[in-house]
Amino acid sequence: MADTTNVLKLEHEIMPVLTQRRSPRAYSDKAVSAGVVEQIFTAASSAASCFGEQPWRYIMGSQSSSPEAFEKILGGLLEFNQVWAKKAPVLAVGVAKLNFSHDGNANGWAKYDVGQSTATLAVEATELGLQIHQMAGFSPDALRAAFSIPEGFEPVVVFTLGYPGPASDLPAGLSEKETAPRARKPLAEFLFEGAWPTPAGERYDQAPV
């Protein structure tokens, strides 16, 4: 069953699993079984991609079954993410294959498609009662060296995977973020029918941090 902490309240009703998906930093020490991991990453394979290329590749490390890989991924994170991510049961790196397989040309949509597949697996994880937290705070060069990622492939995201834990386990400052109310922009601020908005209608300075 999906976690119901900080469920989004939106202006239109959508699938509950989408309102329940969030990006926690507090994780339980409960291990994620191999079967659940495989189910979640199988969901990634269902995502759309340009020419059906499926340019996503994932490197995962589990504290219980592949601790060396886990430590390599953790070592590639910036320090402010290491502080809390070290307690997650699983870490994973999303990697983009930068050229199409069928003709060798550059795939300008590769990173977009990695995003699609990762978003899809995040929804599957939420449905199963787990959560992921996607991070931009990592060193692509460190991960490339740690895992011998070849040319033509680029790390684009690192994320945690596990069962949510109590916010009280987090360092001071992060626990408040864990329980702070969540909000999203209303449709009027990002959906424009017929034309781009006039400057008076733009609200890009209002994005919540």
UniProtKB/TrEMBL annotation:
All copies of domain Nitroreductase, residue ranges: 19-163
Signal sequence bounds: none
One Pfam family named in its UniProt record: Nitroreductase
Coiled coil: none
Domain of life of the source: Bacteria
UniProt xrefs under PANTHER family: NADPH NITROREDUCTASE (PTHR23026), NITROREDUCTASE (PTHR23026:SF100)
Protein name in UniProt: Nitroreductase
